[in-house]
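QA checklist item 7 of 12: single-chain prediction sanity check.
[x] sequence parsed
[x] length recorded as 197
[x] structure emitted
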Amino acid sequence: MTDSDSYYLSLRPGLNIGPWRIRNYSTWNRNVNGDSADESWDSLYTYAQRNIIALKSQLTFGDSTAPSELFDSVPFRGAQLASDDDMLPDSLRGYAPVVRGIARTNAQVIIKQNGYTIYQSYVSPGAFEITDMYPTGSSGDLDVTIKEADGSEQHQTVAFASLPILQREGRLKYSVTSGQYRPYESDIDKKCLPRPP
């Protein structure tokens, strides 16, 4: 019977330089079985990233994945400029419809979904738009009540459905990626990728 030992080390070093964030993820493995030993050092990814505040986006160079709302993300090595919802206020993240109406007086607007109040605010006389409603995790039409100063009420229904690809009115979500496909398994033959003649 031979003695066997296994060693594992995981490193996630990082460095911040000005607006740039540099990150790496590396692992080391060593398996000893009697007189033989097998050792490997793998760098899973390395990238440099910074915020582009004016575009509410992230600029990334190095190893990353192309974002996808419906399908599996694609790993790549190259450059990417992608919008970042985390740079938006909570009230503008995710999808929520724009609720429009007309108030005859200084009125209170109450929005309910499935019987629960999800938004309440006051509006001035005239046409109004509500664009800062928080997204809800459930589906169901929105019941809008406009309570006028004289006690009268207006009611309307706004159709609502939440799908991963839906965006708020006027909101642009994008990702521009250029680079080479980066397989998760390092032993995958890169010859399967198309190459120029």
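[x] summary fact logged: Residues 187-197 have pLDDT under 50 and may be disordered.
[ ] second reviewer sign-off
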